[in-house]
Design goal:
By secondary structure, the chain is mostly beta strands. It is about 10% helix and about 45% strand.
Length: about 80
């Protein structure tokens, strides 16, 4: 499954968009790297929020959209 992530910085309004690939059982990768091991601090902050147990990435189905909130970002995810 591909998860499209769009995160908007609450203070600056900066938007970052990227894809995660994988599934809830095996985990998700960002450009071939486990989502918790990404070097980019902004993407890692968003990913750290998405990996929490109550995150919608574990229950979202293809075609659905869900929202999550990090300390610095409002996050929207869409499953394809």
């Amino acid at each position: 499954m591909i998860i499209k992530v769009k995160a908007t910085n609450k203070k600056s309004g900066e938007v970052i968009s990227y894809d995660l690939e994988g599934d809830a059982a095996s985990g998700f990768l960002y450009e071939g790297t486990h989502m918790q091991e990404v070097a980019d601090n902004k993407i890692r902050e968003v990913n750290n929020t998405l990996i929490l147990m109550d995150s919608p990435i574990y229950t979202i189905k293809s075609g659905e959209t869900a929202e999550a909130e990090a300390m610095s970002f409002d996050i929207e995810i869409t499953a394809e």
